[in-house]
Amino acid sequence: MMAKKMKIDPDKFARAVVSGSAITESDDVKASKRALKRYLSAYLLIEDFNKLEKETVSGLNDQSFSEMMGSIAKALQSKY
């Protein structure tokens, strides 16, 4: 059983994704839209991850970490 639940800050994660992305658009509007799309995609992905992780941890006490991560990955993959 995992003693501590994992929770990723969606804003920090999304900012890290955008800041680590190379945006090569010459048009500022296109570059801004691309950055916003990356930010929102990352933010929503982590919100879903946090929700699934919370549900998985609270519902399955004896599941190993790798099995739990596999369950979460499957759920996220089917959604996206």
UniProtKB/TrEMBL annotation:
<protein>
    <submittedName>
        <fullName>Uncharacterized protein</fullName>
    </submittedName>
</protein>
